[in-house]
Amino acid sequence: MKSNVRISKLSLAIILVLCFGALGLFVSYWFSRQAEIKELAKQETLLRGELDQLSVWGKWTVDYVKINKALAHLSKNRLTEEQREMLTEQIWQISRSYATDPLLILSVVAQESHGNPNARGRMQSGAYSGALGLMQIKLETAKKMGAHFGLHIETEEDLLKPEINVTVGTAYLIRLISKYGNWKDALIAYNLGHSAVDRMLESGKPLPTKYYEHVISKYRKLTGIDFLETSSP
User: What global pTM score does this model have?
Assistant: First the structure.
């Protein structure tokens, strides 16, 4: 016995309409989900950017605190609070602009003057060397470097001002880093003079590392966790 199932044209049309309707709903849902996924991905990217920025700001804040504490530790009340705040801001801005560790700059201060803004350098004979202030800069060098920043440095009294001394001293150090491409040679040149270091490098003579080692020793002390946690402004 044969059974013939016949679907009327109307029923077939209804079925097709339902199928296409379901397909349309699925496609619409799929596209809406894709739009949501894209929006979520966009939001995630924005959040990651904000987190990265917060991380950078957090590091800047930590650096600012480190600089202030290190200056307080080095100066032993030989800087006024106003001078220390001004120097903190200066060194913080310089370290950001030139991607330089601010505590390395302060390690040079520690080695050169022990944080004494009125320090006057002496040679082994006991005669004054002409090096002045926190970073022990000579007046001739300061005049040349100051000219690049619009600083008119005429006398030793000008150079003994902490904010001027640190500006020209750090600028000179950064110029040496740019010249030699590394901290080690730059620090040695800061101590001996770049002409002397150039002659040694050209002749193949090894550079003396004692000064560099002293600065790095100061740096390790300044970056010590105990110091940063316990020293007070």
Answer: 0.72
* Count of structural domains within the chain: 1
R_g (Cα) of the chain, nearest Å: 33
**Assigned domain for 121 exists:** yes
Pairing of strands 120-122, 137-138: unpaired
Domain that holds residue 64: 49-230
| Span between the terminal Cα atoms of the chain, in Å | 104
Q: How far apart are CA 132 and CA 119, in angstroms?
A: 6
Q: What is the pLDDT of residues 58-83, one digit of tens each?
A: 566 788 888 999 999 898 889 999 99
Q: Output the domain CATH number for residue 74.
A: 1.10.530.10
User: What are the C-alpha distances in Å from 28 to residues 18, 21, 25, 180?
Assistant: 15, 10, 5, 63
